[in-house]
Write a structure and sequence with these properties.
- The complex is a heterodimer of chains A (167) and B (108).
- Chain A has 167 residues and is an all-alpha fold.
- Chain A contains 6 helices and 1 strand.
- With 108 residues, chain B is mainly α.
- Chain B is elongated and about 55 Å long.
- Classes of the chains: A mainly alpha (167), B mainly alpha (108).
- Chains A and B meet through helix 1, helix 2, helix 3, helix 4 and strand 1 of A and helix 1, helix 2, strand 1 and helix 3 of B.
Chain lengths: 167, 108
Protein backbone atom coordinates (compact mmCIF):
# COMPACT_ATOMS: atom_id res chain seq x y z
CA UNK A 1 0.00 0.00 0.00
CA UNK A 2 1.39 3.31 -1.10
CA UNK A 3 1.87 6.22 1.29
CA UNK A 4 -0.59 8.33 -0.71
CA UNK A 5 -3.24 5.63 -0.40
CA UNK A 6 -2.67 5.41 3.34
CA UNK A 7 -3.01 9.20 3.54
CA UNK A 8 -6.21 9.06 1.49
CA UNK A 9 -7.85 6.56 3.81
CA UNK A 10 -6.68 8.30 6.96
CA UNK A 11 -7.88 11.71 5.76
CA UNK A 12 -11.21 10.26 4.64
CA UNK A 13 -11.76 8.56 7.98
CA UNK A 14 -10.89 11.75 9.85
CA UNK A 15 -13.22 13.81 7.66
CA UNK A 16 -16.16 11.43 8.07
CA UNK A 17 -15.71 10.99 11.81
CA UNK A 18 -15.40 14.73 12.39
CA UNK A 19 -18.43 15.42 10.17
CA UNK A 20 -20.52 13.03 12.23
CA UNK A 21 -19.22 14.60 15.42
CA UNK A 22 -20.37 18.01 14.14
CA UNK A 23 -23.91 16.66 14.18
CA UNK A 24 -23.92 14.76 17.44
CA UNK A 25 -22.14 17.35 19.60
CA UNK A 26 -24.49 19.03 22.03
CA UNK A 27 -22.26 22.03 22.60
CA UNK A 28 -22.13 24.38 19.56
CA UNK A 29 -18.50 25.29 20.30
CA UNK A 30 -17.52 21.63 19.99
CA UNK A 31 -19.39 21.48 16.68
CA UNK A 32 -17.35 24.40 15.39
CA UNK A 33 -14.10 22.76 16.46
CA UNK A 34 -15.05 19.48 14.78
CA UNK A 35 -15.96 21.38 11.63
CA UNK A 36 -12.46 22.89 11.65
CA UNK A 37 -11.11 19.32 11.77
CA UNK A 38 -13.23 18.51 8.70
CA UNK A 39 -11.77 21.51 6.87
CA UNK A 40 -8.22 20.47 7.74
CA UNK A 41 -8.90 16.97 6.43
CA UNK A 42 -10.36 18.35 3.20
CA UNK A 43 -7.32 20.63 2.83
CA UNK A 44 -5.17 17.54 3.21
CA UNK A 45 -7.09 15.97 0.35
CA UNK A 46 -6.44 19.06 -1.77
CA UNK A 47 -2.70 18.84 -1.07
CA UNK A 48 -2.83 15.15 -1.97
CA UNK A 49 -4.46 16.12 -5.28
CA UNK A 50 -1.73 18.75 -5.78
CA UNK A 51 -4.23 21.63 -5.59
CA UNK A 52 -2.01 23.69 -3.33
CA UNK A 53 -3.64 27.06 -3.91
CA UNK A 54 -7.06 25.75 -2.96
CA UNK A 55 -5.66 23.96 0.08
CA UNK A 56 -4.19 27.18 1.45
CA UNK A 57 -7.25 29.24 0.54
CA UNK A 58 -9.48 26.65 2.19
CA UNK A 59 -7.48 26.89 5.39
CA UNK A 60 -7.30 30.68 5.41
CA UNK A 61 -10.87 31.42 4.38
CA UNK A 62 -12.80 28.58 6.00
CA UNK A 63 -10.80 27.46 9.01
CA UNK A 64 -9.33 30.90 9.60
CA UNK A 65 -12.03 33.43 8.87
CA UNK A 66 -15.45 31.82 8.66
CA UNK A 67 -15.06 29.53 11.66
CA UNK A 68 -13.73 32.37 13.80
CA UNK A 69 -16.82 34.33 12.82
CA UNK A 70 -18.99 31.39 13.94
CA UNK A 71 -17.12 31.19 17.23
CA UNK A 72 -17.58 34.91 17.78
CA UNK A 73 -21.32 34.67 17.23
CA UNK A 74 -21.67 31.62 19.48
CA UNK A 75 -19.74 33.29 22.27
CA UNK A 76 -21.66 36.53 21.78
CA UNK A 77 -24.90 34.64 22.38
CA UNK A 78 -23.42 32.64 25.26
CA UNK A 79 -24.75 29.34 23.93
CA UNK A 80 -23.94 26.05 25.60
CA UNK A 81 -25.23 22.51 25.76
CA UNK A 82 -28.10 23.41 28.08
CA UNK A 83 -29.54 25.93 25.66
CA UNK A 84 -29.62 23.37 22.88
CA UNK A 85 -33.22 23.13 21.66
CA UNK A 86 -34.63 19.64 22.01
CA UNK A 87 -36.61 17.93 19.35
CA UNK A 88 -38.64 14.78 19.38
CA UNK A 89 -36.99 11.55 18.38
CA UNK A 90 -39.13 10.93 15.30
CA UNK A 91 -37.92 14.08 13.59
CA UNK A 92 -34.33 12.92 14.09
CA UNK A 93 -35.10 9.47 12.72
CA UNK A 94 -36.87 10.94 9.71
CA UNK A 95 -33.97 13.34 9.04
CA UNK A 96 -31.39 10.57 9.18
CA UNK A 97 -33.51 8.31 6.97
CA UNK A 98 -33.91 11.12 4.43
CA UNK A 99 -30.16 11.70 4.36
CA UNK A 100 -29.56 7.97 3.99
CA UNK A 101 -31.96 7.71 1.07
CA UNK A 102 -30.24 10.62 -0.67
CA UNK A 103 -26.90 8.89 -0.06
CA UNK A 104 -28.29 5.69 -1.57
CA UNK A 105 -29.38 7.52 -4.72
CA UNK A 106 -26.04 9.34 -5.08
CA UNK A 107 -23.88 6.27 -4.47
CA UNK A 108 -25.83 4.11 -6.88
CA UNK A 109 -25.57 6.91 -9.48
CA UNK A 110 -21.78 6.98 -8.98
CA UNK A 111 -21.54 3.20 -9.19
CA UNK A 112 -23.55 2.94 -12.38
CA UNK A 113 -21.95 5.88 -14.23
CA UNK A 114 -20.17 4.40 -17.22
CA UNK A 115 -17.88 7.40 -17.74
CA UNK A 116 -16.42 7.07 -14.27
CA UNK A 117 -15.18 3.51 -14.52
CA UNK A 118 -11.47 2.98 -15.08
CA UNK A 119 -10.66 6.60 -14.42
CA UNK A 120 -8.30 7.71 -11.73
CA UNK A 121 -7.76 10.90 -9.76
CA UNK A 122 -4.19 11.93 -10.36
CA UNK A 123 -2.39 12.18 -7.04
CA UNK A 124 0.82 14.11 -6.33
CA UNK A 125 1.24 15.07 -10.00
CA UNK A 126 -0.05 17.68 -12.42
CA UNK A 127 0.40 21.44 -12.32
CA UNK A 128 -3.14 22.74 -12.83
CA UNK A 129 -3.55 23.41 -9.13
CA UNK A 130 -0.50 25.63 -8.85
CA UNK A 131 -1.04 29.32 -8.25
CA UNK A 132 0.76 30.39 -11.43
CA UNK A 133 -1.57 28.40 -13.64
CA UNK A 134 -4.75 29.35 -11.77
CA UNK A 135 -3.85 33.04 -11.63
CA UNK A 136 -3.20 33.17 -15.33
CA UNK A 137 -6.65 31.79 -16.14
CA UNK A 138 -8.35 33.80 -13.38
CA UNK A 139 -7.14 37.13 -14.70
CA UNK A 140 -7.70 36.39 -18.38
CA UNK A 141 -10.70 34.13 -18.96
CA UNK A 142 -12.39 34.74 -15.63
CA UNK A 143 -11.66 38.44 -15.17
CA UNK A 144 -15.32 39.51 -15.40
CA UNK A 145 -16.64 37.00 -12.80
CA UNK A 146 -13.74 37.99 -10.56
CA UNK A 147 -14.75 41.64 -10.65
CA UNK A 148 -18.42 40.76 -10.19
CA UNK A 149 -17.52 38.80 -7.07
CA UNK A 150 -15.95 41.93 -5.64
CA UNK A 151 -19.30 43.68 -6.13
CA UNK A 152 -20.93 40.72 -4.40
CA UNK A 153 -18.62 41.20 -1.43
CA UNK A 154 -19.43 44.88 -1.29
CA UNK A 155 -23.16 44.19 -1.27
CA UNK A 156 -22.72 41.47 1.38
CA UNK A 157 -20.81 43.92 3.55
CA UNK A 158 -23.50 46.56 3.17
CA UNK A 159 -26.18 43.95 3.84
CA UNK A 160 -24.49 42.70 7.00
CA UNK A 161 -24.16 46.24 8.33
CA UNK A 162 -27.76 47.12 7.52
CA UNK A 163 -29.16 43.91 9.04
CA UNK A 164 -27.01 44.06 12.13
CA UNK A 165 -27.73 47.73 12.81
CA UNK A 166 -29.60 48.50 16.00
CA UNK A 167 -32.70 50.49 15.21
CA UNK B 1 -6.84 6.34 -6.59
CA UNK B 2 -10.08 5.55 -8.49
CA UNK B 3 -12.32 8.57 -9.01
CA UNK B 4 -15.31 6.74 -7.52
CA UNK B 5 -13.69 6.79 -4.10
CA UNK B 6 -13.57 10.57 -4.13
CA UNK B 7 -17.11 10.85 -5.46
CA UNK B 8 -18.41 8.48 -2.79
CA UNK B 9 -16.54 10.33 -0.05
CA UNK B 10 -17.99 13.66 -1.09
CA UNK B 11 -21.47 12.13 -1.43
CA UNK B 12 -21.23 10.80 2.12
CA UNK B 13 -20.07 14.18 3.43
CA UNK B 14 -22.90 15.90 1.56
CA UNK B 15 -25.50 13.54 2.99
CA UNK B 16 -24.16 14.00 6.51
CA UNK B 17 -24.70 17.72 5.94
CA UNK B 18 -28.25 17.13 4.69
CA UNK B 19 -29.10 14.90 7.64
CA UNK B 20 -27.68 17.49 10.03
CA UNK B 21 -29.64 20.35 8.49
CA UNK B 22 -32.80 18.28 8.86
CA UNK B 23 -32.27 16.96 12.37
CA UNK B 24 -30.86 19.93 14.26
CA UNK B 25 -32.90 22.98 15.24
CA UNK B 26 -30.05 25.22 16.29
CA UNK B 27 -29.75 27.81 13.51
CA UNK B 28 -25.96 28.00 13.78
CA UNK B 29 -25.56 24.22 13.48
CA UNK B 30 -27.81 24.23 10.43
CA UNK B 31 -25.62 26.93 8.93
CA UNK B 32 -22.50 24.86 9.65
CA UNK B 33 -24.09 21.88 7.95
CA UNK B 34 -24.60 24.03 4.86
CA UNK B 35 -20.88 24.86 4.95
CA UNK B 36 -20.18 21.14 5.18
CA UNK B 37 -22.27 20.51 2.07
CA UNK B 38 -20.44 23.27 0.18
CA UNK B 39 -17.13 21.71 1.12
CA UNK B 40 -18.25 18.27 -0.04
CA UNK B 41 -19.07 19.75 -3.45
CA UNK B 42 -15.70 21.52 -3.50
CA UNK B 43 -13.89 18.27 -2.82
CA UNK B 44 -15.77 16.59 -5.65
CA UNK B 45 -14.93 19.40 -8.09
CA UNK B 46 -11.23 19.26 -7.24
CA UNK B 47 -11.16 15.47 -7.58
CA UNK B 48 -12.90 15.67 -10.96
CA UNK B 49 -10.46 18.34 -12.14
CA UNK B 50 -7.65 15.83 -11.65
CA UNK B 51 -9.47 12.99 -13.37
CA UNK B 52 -7.31 11.01 -15.75
CA UNK B 53 -7.70 10.11 -18.59
CA UNK B 54 -9.42 13.46 -18.87
CA UNK B 55 -12.57 13.72 -20.97
CA UNK B 56 -12.20 15.83 -24.07
CA UNK B 57 -14.06 19.11 -23.62
CA UNK B 58 -13.90 21.62 -26.50
CA UNK B 59 -12.73 24.99 -25.24
CA UNK B 60 -11.87 23.64 -21.81
CA UNK B 61 -8.79 24.51 -19.84
CA UNK B 62 -7.94 20.99 -18.82
CA UNK B 63 -9.28 21.04 -15.30
CA UNK B 64 -8.39 24.60 -14.36
CA UNK B 65 -12.04 25.64 -14.71
CA UNK B 66 -13.10 23.27 -11.94
CA UNK B 67 -10.56 24.66 -9.50
CA UNK B 68 -11.62 28.22 -10.30
CA UNK B 69 -15.22 27.20 -9.68
CA UNK B 70 -14.13 26.00 -6.26
CA UNK B 71 -12.54 29.40 -5.72
CA UNK B 72 -15.77 31.18 -6.62
CA UNK B 73 -17.79 28.84 -4.40
CA UNK B 74 -15.55 29.88 -1.52
CA UNK B 75 -16.13 33.55 -2.38
CA UNK B 76 -19.90 33.07 -2.37
CA UNK B 77 -19.72 31.08 0.87
CA UNK B 78 -17.81 33.87 2.60
CA UNK B 79 -20.37 36.48 1.52
CA UNK B 80 -23.20 34.16 2.54
CA UNK B 81 -21.75 33.60 5.99
CA UNK B 82 -21.40 37.30 6.71
CA UNK B 83 -25.03 38.01 5.83
CA UNK B 84 -26.36 34.82 7.41
CA UNK B 85 -24.65 35.36 10.73
CA UNK B 86 -25.97 38.92 10.78
CA UNK B 87 -29.47 37.51 10.30
CA UNK B 88 -28.94 34.98 13.10
CA UNK B 89 -27.68 37.69 15.47
CA UNK B 90 -30.71 39.79 14.60
CA UNK B 91 -33.01 36.83 15.23
CA UNK B 92 -31.37 36.21 18.61
CA UNK B 93 -31.78 39.85 19.52
CA UNK B 94 -35.50 39.73 18.73
CA UNK B 95 -36.64 36.36 20.09
CA UNK B 96 -33.75 35.51 22.48
CA UNK B 97 -33.36 32.07 20.98
CA UNK B 98 -31.80 30.55 17.90
CA UNK B 99 -34.31 27.74 17.65
CA UNK B 100 -35.46 27.85 14.03
CA UNK B 101 -38.97 26.78 15.03
CA UNK B 102 -39.51 30.21 16.53
CA UNK B 103 -39.44 31.56 13.01
CA UNK B 104 -42.85 30.04 12.27
CA UNK B 105 -44.25 33.16 13.87
CA UNK B 106 -43.78 34.71 10.46
CA UNK B 107 -46.88 32.79 9.43
CA UNK B 108 -49.22 35.00 11.44
Amino acid sequence: MDITQILFWVLSAVALFAAIMVLVSKNPVHSVLWLIVVFFAISGHYILLNAQFLAIVNLIVYAGAIMVLFLFVIMLMNLNAESDPQKNIWMKVIGVVTGGLLLWVLVSAVRSAGEMTAREALLKKGDIGLIQNLGKILFTDYAVPFEISSVLFLSAMVGAVVIGKKD
Amino acid sequence: MPIQYYLTLSAVLFCIGVAGALTRRNAIIIFMCIELMLNAVNLMLVALSKMTPAPVIPGGNGGTDAQLFVFFIMVVAAAEVSVGLAIIVMMYRNVHSIDVNFLNRLKN
